[in-house]
Design a protein that fits this description.
15% strand, alpha+beta
């Protein structure tokens, strides 16, 4: 988590951004046939996302993801760097493995 206390001293914008990212994950998962259940665990101060197979549905919130932005500036259109994409793919693979284990375990 990257804090910026100079402009967001109470972390309001940080947590709003994390909530938006979580919603994007839920919408994207559903479009790929995974239903997301989000739970906040106050004990470890963490958001947990459980995924289970379902019928794929691409809702309007999913199709809007590429055109939404959370900055006051315009998107410059520059592509994401290859190493950033590789990092995101590895993270997705870890989530898929964890989901498969959760589904198999019970």
């Amino acid at each position: 988590m990257r804090r910026c206390p100079a402009v967001d001293p109470d972390d309001h914008h940080l947590f709003v951004s994390l909530g938006c990212a979580t919603e994007n994950l839920v919408q994207a998962a559903l479009s790929h046939g995974l239903k997301g259940l989000v739970l906040f665990n106050a004990a470890d101060n963490a958001v947990h996302l459980a995924l289970e197979p379902t019928i794929a549905v691409a809702r309007p919130l999913f199709t809007a993801i590429p055109v939404r932005q959370c900055t006051r500036g315009y998107y410059d259109g520059k592509p994401v760097f290859i190493d950033e994409l590789a990092h995101a793919r590895r993270a997705l693979q870890r989530v898929r493995r964890q989901t498969e284990h959760s589904l198999l375990d019970g």
